[in-house]
Amino acid sequence: MATMTRRLQILIDEERYQLLERESQRLGKPIAELIRDALDQIYVTDMASRRAAAERLLAAEPMPVEDWDVMKQDLRDSLYAADRP
Hints:
It is a single chain. The chain is an all-alpha fold. The chain has helices at residues 14-27, 31-59, 68-83. The chain has a domain at 10-61. It has 3 helices and no strands.
């Protein structure tokens, strides 16, 4: 477990606090631990998946592009076509 070296103070509404309090009692964990777990689940996992995606992109074989302007327009057309019914 990492050493806790930073203190964070936040204000939340009563409804969120009650939710945290119920979960704290249900799981037998302090509210601070629930918040740290939520941060890890959302942000640490997200960063790891982004890093992996970037590594896959950088490791991919280069794609030949004959005419960048034509390819760019094709990409735009396909993007906007997905928005149309």
